[in-house]
Design goal:
The complex is a heterodimer of chains A (116) and B (106). With 116 residues, chain A is an all-beta fold. Chain A has strands at residues 3-7, 11-12, 18-25, 33-39, 46-51, 57-59, 67-72, 77-82, 91-99, 102-106, 110-114. In chain A, the strands form two sheets. In chain A, strands 2, 4, 5, 6, 9, 10 and 11 form a seven-stranded mixed β-sheet that branches. In chain A, strand 5 (46-51) and strand 6 form a beta hairpin. In chain B, 37% of the residues are buried. In chain B, 0% of the residues lie in helices and 51% in strands. Chain B has no helices and eleven strands. Chain B is globular and about 35 Å long. Classes of the chains: A mainly beta (116), B mainly beta (106).
Chain lengths: 116, 106
Amino acid sequence: QVQLKESGPGLVQPSETLSLTCTVSGFSLTSYSVSWVRQPSGKGPEWMGRMWYDGDTAYNSALKSRLSISRDTSKNQVFLKMNSLQTDDTGTYYCTRDDNNYFDYWGQGVMVTVSS
Amino acid sequence: DIQMTQSPPVLSASVGDRVTLSCKASQNINKNLDWYQQKHGEAPKLLIYYTNNLQTGIPSRFSGSGSGTDYTLTISSLQPEDVATYYCYQYNSGYTFGAGTKLELK
């Protein structure tokens, strides 16, 4: 069955870089895109960016200067790196299977706190 | 950027009620809109894609409609397990979620 699982540090220092990994199973990264979505506590989700099935990427314009998404298809993994973190980057980060602009499967999410 | 405004922010309803949640876009989004349900402590779950298409496994009491800038999610007969926050999401130009409607039981 389709599964996605996020992993990464729960605590990041301000101005540091966040690195998250999404490990997928039950589908191929060369057949489906994967998006990253984050959600501050008590607020609506925010689409961050996408790794297209063909290896191309797309980013939220508000985050583009700080964000990088890559993948390793041999390991079924998609990576997110975001630099210059601030306290308002605190929230839950999800990876999702992105089937032509709808997110049909989600990981459980990883809570990231930006604090010194 | 397209802004998505959901109303009401909080809705209280009784079991069996017909419930309507609204989502208004700041410009025409050509039906490029999905609806997600998020229960407390869980990831969002896809309910409706491209305005009115029911995702596999979602109960038929959920339905979506709309066009242009105005979209609606309807629950025909509210069940206790429908207590959640509901988000609309547009992908016509950029990608934007609404702030959500929290659905509570009266």
